[in-house]
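User: I'm new to structure prediction. If I give you an amino acid sequence, what do you actually give back? Let's try with this one:
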Amino acid sequence: MMLMTLMETGTRGLLGACFGPTTAGETAYATRLLPLLDERHLVLIDRGFDANAFLADLAATGAQFLVRLKSTPRPALLRT
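Assistant: Good question. You get back a string of structure tokens that encode the predicted 3D arrangement of the chain. For your 80 residues, that looks like this:
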């Protein structure tokens, strides 16, 4: 089983969680937590979540985000 959580950094408060089999993958579970985000949030993401489709879905929430990227990806340009 895999557990994915969305935590508040300062207070470490739990904003949301979901779980299921490991066959679904981390970004599938993280996508289920995106409705909890809006323009008030700053999301810090590790490099396992740097898929273009996931980042586009995250950007659509209005939240700001900072992502640690792998050395090889070429993320889609959302705007200049």
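You can read the tokens as a compact description of the fold. Here is one thing that stands out. The two ends are 40 Å apart (CA to CA).
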